[in-house]
Amino acid sequence: MDASQVVAAVLKVVAAGLVLTLMGSLLREMRGEWGTVVRLVGGALLLLWLIRPLAGAVAALDRLAQLGSIPGAYLGLLLRILGMAYLTTLAARVAYDSGESHLGARIELAGKIAVLVLAVPLITLITKSLLALIPS
């Protein structure tokens, strides 16, 4: 996917998200349970809509890793870190939207700790690479 296709996909998601937000707000006022259903189903559909651009980004990262002779394990680690960050952000937002701000803050903290722990091998690789460039 090129940049214009990604922008078009994101614009579609934004437009659909705004429409779903309006529908969810209206339905929540009239029939609370249907507003919740619209929000959940709409959120899932919006995420599914972004699978193609995400697959393109993963493929681009894979090509960059191959060009830089970076082992595949590090690319997998980077993708796990990104996935962890996005997943914890999504879970924290759900908690905040449900009025559970303390729980949302703990989810965010857990995500930050997980990212830090998972990033240690990448930080080590970068440090070793930089030290190899400095003449002894």
List the SSEs and their pairings.
Layout: H1 3-30, H2 32-49, H3 51-67, H4 72-97, H5 101-133
Describe this structure in words.
The structure is a single chain. 90% of the residues lie in helices and 0% in strands. The protein is mainly α and 136 residues long. It folds into 2 domains: 1-68; 70-136. The longest helix is centred in the C-terminal third of the chain and has 33 residues, at 101-133.
Radius of gyration computed on alpha carbons? 20 Å
Work out the number of β strands.
0
Helix count equals 5
Count of domains: 2
Q: Describe the global form.
A: flat
Strand content: under 5%
Given the helix and strand composition, which structural class is it? Answer: mainly alpha
Report the sheet with the most strands, covering strand number, pairing sense and barrel closure: none
Fraction of helical residues: over 70%
Topology as a string of helices (H) and strands (E): HHHHH
First-to-last CA distance: 44 Å
Mean pLDDT: 83
Uncertain runs: none
